Amino acid sequence: MMRKSLSGKLFASFLTVIVLSLSMVGFISYFQASEALDKSSEKSIAQVIRSASYQTDLYLQNYEKASDSILSYNQVKQFLDMDPEDNYSYYQYTNDIQKYLFRSLFILYPQINLMYVIGEHGKAISDDNSNQAYSPQFHPLERYRFLSKHTPDSGRIAILNTNVMNEGDHNIITMVRRVRGVSSYRPNGIVAIEFKAEDLARIWEPLDLGQGGFFFIMDEFGKLLYRPEGNENLPGLSPDLIQNVFQHPNDSVVEKVDGKEYMFVSRKSDYSKWQLVVSMPVGELRKPISTIRTTTLVVGVLTLAGTLWLASRFGRSITKPILILKEGMRETEKGNWRRLETDGRQDELGGLMRSYNLMVTRLSEMIERVYEAELTTQKAALELQETRLERQQAEFQALQLQINPHFLYNTLETIKCYAVVQDSDEITEMVEAMAFMLRYSIQTNLEEITIANELRHVLSYMTILKHRIGREFEIDVVIPPALLLAKTVRLTLQPLIENIFQHAFFNGIEDRHYIRIDARIEGDRLLVLVEDNGSGMSRERLGELREKLNLNQLADTEGDSRYHRGGIGIMNVHRRIQMVFGEQYGLSVESKENEGTRMILSMPVERGKECFKNKTIIGRNMQ
Questions:
Q1: How far apart are the first and last CA of the chain?
Q2: What is the largest CA-CA distance in the chain?
Q3: Which is deepest, 53, 365, 453, 623, by most CB within 10 Å?
């Protein structure tokens, strides 16, 4: 499986974040703007309809006033109460009503096409706006019965899409009212006024409905009263579509007509009960959205290109020093002591590179001193004791600097991951802990240090390990306070703790796992115990390890692979104690498979510290 570089991961992370951000912003902005524009368009259209509806109601109220004039005319009431067999009276009423009433109304309301009055006795008086009596094929009694079915007795007007000829002309609208005579107590006649629906179109002419917009009118029963004619670009209105729009008064409906989406916005008049509908193509309404979408895409692409360029530069600024540090460590493994150029960096990575340079300097000094010690032993036998001590000191120092490169590499990889997904606080914590471990491990003096110093070194290791494993782990420290200042050997506890995580908990850390560090005095020895309840070792494995410890030799990294990594740490701790305190001291191991392991560090008690025998135990936790 190919490993991606940190720069590539950073670039991919930035790309993901930027693309998601731009996509979400563009997506939300587009749909919110679309919804807002739809509502704004619907609101604007509704406002137009309300204005046109108001004008239409005013227009119809003029005809209602004309009908009031007819209803209040005394000759009309007398005509309704006349004897249908009295032809002379019928002639007089007809002449009077046509001459003095209808002609006056035609002058006042030139838009009226026809007016007529029909009594239930079967007689009718009618007149049109052409100064000629309207009589061809006019059957008054049949017309009276038809209009009576659709006209309320209360005297309220009814507006019907019909005409006196019943020819189905949709451009003729009839306003009808019930009327009663002088002596009757119930309605016994019908007054009707016919006018052309085309006159309504003049009210709608000032409306700008765009290229594909149009309007139409439905009566209170959902029947189409009027729609513009003569425009070939207007879509067809099916009965199902008309009914669907009719069932949503004072609302908007989006329907597909002739393969094209239209928005129908309707408002119902409280006066006429008509439903006025305006239709606009959805594409025309959302044309501003297309402009917004195009602008968003162009700006998004330019923003994406700029941010990706910045992300690439930012990623290289982080990964470049890490790659330089990694390459320098590889050269160090080969024995090439090369210092790194820090380029004046003052951040955490610059501090890590300076610590690395210090380590390389110390390592080169150590090697030179080893060579000098070898030359000194060849010069004089009289200085044998001193030479042996120097060689032992140099051996200890070289051993002390055998820092596990895998740990450093894994730590750096962890730092890289944090550089991608977290802020710099965790990186600072890890780098500081790593710098402390490096400074602590490259000390060259042979003086013994205290158990408290070793515990602090373990704490730095646990700080780094916490970020590597992604969880907290507490180490139980139950060392008596009086023993915390007891002398021990540098770099003894941390390798043992690392060995536990690598081998005792190799299947992963569980909640039941624990590590306990204790210390006590037995006779003239100081014992430091490190226990765990991990996987333990088999008898064969434990026997091989004890045999290796009995050889009193440093671990050979090129030798038996069974002791690679973990075995190196245990045997080097054992040998380091022997070099400082003598071969009668060192490390012993007790273990049972699937139960755990106990590692015991045995060292002499410092003279004058008999007070250490006080056994008061104070428990502490180390994370």
A1: 34
A2: 169
A3: 53
Determine the Cα–Cα distance for residues 245 and 314; give it in Å rounded to an integer: 59
**In degrees rounded to 5, what are phi and psi of residue 144?**
-65, -45
Is 234 inside a domain boundary? no
Distance from chain centroid for Cα 293: 20
Q: Which residues pair with 194 in a beta bridge?
A: 114, 174
383 and 463 both lie in a single domain: no
Which amino acid, residue 349? L
pLDDT in tens, 323-358: 777 777 777 766 676 677 766 666 777 777 778 777
Cβ neighbours around 79 below 10 Å, total: 25
Across the strands, what pairs with 599?
A: 530, 589
Taking the whole predicted model, whether its pTM rises above 0.70 is answered as no
Q: What SS3 state is found at 165?
A: coil
Same domain, 459 and 597: yes
Q: At 491, list the tokens.
A: 């770099």
Coil/strand/helix, residue 125: strand
Selection from 355, 319, 361, 321 nearest residue 338 by Cα? 361
Nearest CA-CA partner of 339 in 326, 348, 328, 349:
328
pLDDT for the residue 575? 85
Copy the structure tokens of residue 329.
Answer: 């460590």
CATH of the domain at 104: 3.30.450.20
- Total domain count, the chain: 4
Does residue 427 sit in the same domain as residue 450?
Answer: no
Beta carbons within 8 Å of 157's beta carbon, 6+ residues apart = 64, 67, 175, 176, 177
Residue 171: what are its φ and ψ, rounded to 5°? -90, 0
Q: CA 600, CA 155: separation in Å to the nearest integer?
A: 113
What distances in angstroms separate CA 488 from CA 59, 361, 452, one per listed residue? 109, 26, 10
Whether 434 and 460 map to the same domain: the answer is no
Tell whether 435 and 524 lie within a shared domain: no
Bridge partner residues of 621 (DSSP): 476
Task: Tell which residue, 188, 190, 202, has the closest CA to residue 162.
Answer: 190
572-576-579 Cα angle (round to 5): 135
Q: Which domain holds residue 489?
A: 446-552+569-604
- Note the pLDDT tens digit of each residue in 163-220: 776 554 556 788 888 888 888 778 889 998 887 777 666 666 666 666 667 777 777 7
Question: DSSP letter string over 567-594?
Answer: HHHHHHHHHHHHHHH-TT-EEEEEEETT
- Let me know whether 457 and 593 are in one domain: yes
Q: Please choose, from the candidates 346, 342, 367, 372, the residue with its C-alpha nearest in 3D space to the C-alpha of residue 357.
A: 342
Q: Provide the CATH number for the domain around residue 589.
A: 3.30.565.10
Instruction: Give residue-wise pLDDT tens across range 75-126.
Output: 888 898 888 888 888 889 888 988 888 888 888 888 788 888 999 888 888 8
Q: Tell me if 78 sits within 8 A of 93, measured CB to CB.
A: yes
- Secondary structure (3-state) at 619: coil
Do 429 and 341 lie in one domain? The reply is no
Task: Indicate whether 521 belongs to any domain.
Answer: yes
Are 114 and 168 found together in one domain? yes
